[in-house]
Amino acid sequence: MIELKTPGEIARMRVTGRFVAEVLAEVGRIADVGVNLLELEHHVRGLISRRGAESCYWDYAPSFGEGPFRNVICLSVNDAVLHGLPHDYTLRDGDVLSADLAVGIDGWVADAARTFVVGTPAEEDLRLVHATEQALAAAIDAARPGNRLGDVSAAIGAVAREHGYPVNTEFGGHGIGRTMHEDPHVPNTGRAGRGLELRPGLTLALEPWFARTTGRIVYDPDGWTIRSADGSRTAHSEHTVAITEGEALVLTRGEDEPE
Ligand code: MG
């Protein structure tokens, strides 16, 4: 079922979204060569608890995971791209770190992800990260009334093709609001003009992610961490947005970032 949100409800999601943006920005500031993923996890736990927010990941137990998730942030390094389980790993020069965070405040959820390159970036990694950001911007631009869900998916797929990155369609964006995952599913490629008609009040988490040379994925034995099947590096960019009468409102931008 797809639930359209009122302007008041979207305003409450914006409050959560600002917090998510601040936390991810802080992760980006702290993540550096020599920093352990567990330090990042514990730092974010402190931020969430001080804000009185609720982690959407803690105890998350979908069919594919091995036992409930007992962390508050997904940290995926290099060939890991989604659901990266924070573990005892110290970041090295040139590592690509994706951080994905979903929390609720007063019952309203926001979800966003950013990818950072630690230390000295390789040119090809920057290109990959930039492509996911560009795809996200294109998806947001397509997320407006009069368009359909397929237009959003097609916008992401077009940027991937332009850069020569294959697209995986098993994991993509999703509806969001009172819970982290609501209908509809938003594939990262698709046919323009097809699918659900976009209407004001629809709130979506849009999340292009690409691996450099494959659209296939493999799971770690923990059942959580998802990696590119060929070990190539990956990147992931995500925002929670609300469809309005005009341009989509990005709910997971920081207070000082342009709307
Ligand atoms: Mg997310």
Task: Outline the structure in words.
There is one protein chain. The strands form four sheets. The protein has a five-stranded antiparallel β-sheet. Strands 1, 2, 4 and 5 form a four-stranded antiparallel β-sheet that branches. Strands 3-11-10 form a three-stranded antiparallel β-sheet, with no helix packed on it. It is an alpha+beta fold and 259 residues long. The chain has four helices and 14 strands. The chain has a single domain, classed as Creatinase/methionine aminopeptidase superfamily (Creatine Amidinohydrolase), CATH 3.90.230. The mean pLDDT is 95. The protein has helices at residues 7-30, 37-51, 123-142, 149-163, and strands at residues 54-55, 74-77, 80-82, 96-105, 108-117, 173-175, 182-186, 203-206, 209-211, 217-219, 226-228, 234-236, 239-242, 249-250. The chain is 29% helix and 23% strand. It is globular. Helix 1 (7-30) packs antiparallel against helix 2 (37-51) and helix 3 packs antiparallel against helix 4 (149-163). Residues 100, 102, 111, 113, 205, 207, 238 line the site of magnesium ion. Magnesium ion binds next to strand 4 and strand 5.
Attribute tags:
259 residues, 4-stranded antiparallel beta sheet, Creatine Amidinohydrolase, binds magnesium ion, alpha+beta, globular
Short description:
With 259 residues, this protein is α+β, with helices and mostly antiparallel strands. 29% of the residues lie in helices and 23% in strands. Bound molecules: magnesium ion (MG).
By secondary-structure content and strand pairing, the structural class works out as alpha+beta
- β-strand number: 14
Distance between the termini: 29 Å
Number of separate domains:
1
Bound molecules: magnesium ion
